[in-house]
Write a structure and sequence with these properties.
about 350 residues, alpha/beta, Rossmann fold, Zinc Finger, Delta Prime, domain 3, binds zinc ion
Length: about 350
Amino acid sequence: MKQQETVNRAPVEKILTFSDFDSQGSAMRGLHRTLREGTYVHAYLLSGAAGVGKKSLMRVISSTLLCTCETEKPCGKCPGCVQYYDGTHPDVIRIRPGKGINSDRDTERGKDAIVVDTIRQMVQMVGEHTYTGGVRIVEILEAEKMNPPAQNALLKTLEEPPDNTVFMLVTEKPNLLLPTIISRCRHIPLHPWDNALIDRILREQGVGEERRGQTIGVCNGSIGVALQMAFDEEYWQRREKILDQFLNLRRRSDIFSVAAFWKDQKEEIDGLLTTVNELLRQVWLVNFGLLPENTLAGYDAAWRHMAREARGEDFTQMIGFVDKARQQRLNQVTPQAVLEQLMLNIMGVKTKWST
Ligand SMILES: [Zn+2]
């Protein structure tokens, strides 16, 4: 087995800048310009799928507004930036569902919601002078979890915004916000990230080439997911094991022992089938040109050959094996029989592409 080049440490939070969001299009350049010129609006709504970079962009905007450096904002070094990234800036109010204001602890009320009391408390705080004499930032994460009274209370504040306060609403589901809230914000929808850009950012974090390719294969254009997964050793060990047991299996005689190994772990079998499906799908996505070939690092040569040469129907047939296995599970076929059949099918395809 090839030695992983990956560093074994959690990523230090990288201070992103606007240039990291270039792939998000011209809206980002306009945003950067207005922040630089001090002509920013009083409320931003950042929306997009999980891990697409909403919170990272929020941090770039907030730190740019709080940065006291004259030239490159955010500089990452001035007291404004440092306090912001430390979570100690006195003019930042952060609201999260079930946590209230500036807290990591669960509150008793509204476990998974942002309740009206929290918004009222925030409104009172923004009515006072800022500590540093600069801008105050109100960050509302998972903003869609504001319940209706909370949304109405926020709306009133957005209608008559206090001076020097910038609201940042972050959400995966903007459709759950009042349309009147949305219309009072500058809405910035974020799109899935370009693979080349994710690759560059992972490289800057010290992630080795092989792991970068594998991560891009599974993160679906989400930079947040990519940064998290690249360092999740447990995930990769499990995946490698499943890859070796199911896709890289060499002898038919091994099928029985692998199936026997999994048959007693009944509650794990659905997750196992999902991973096998994901592994097979990646061969197809590489064939389609949607993923780079190094995604298949760790796959036997036959799969890489298939990714280069095979045609659509070969892949639909292969993906069908997992659907069939799922169907057999529903029909109460024993796990042992389901897995043996699946492995025989996969091996059949693999043999066809072995050189
Ligand atoms: Zn700074």
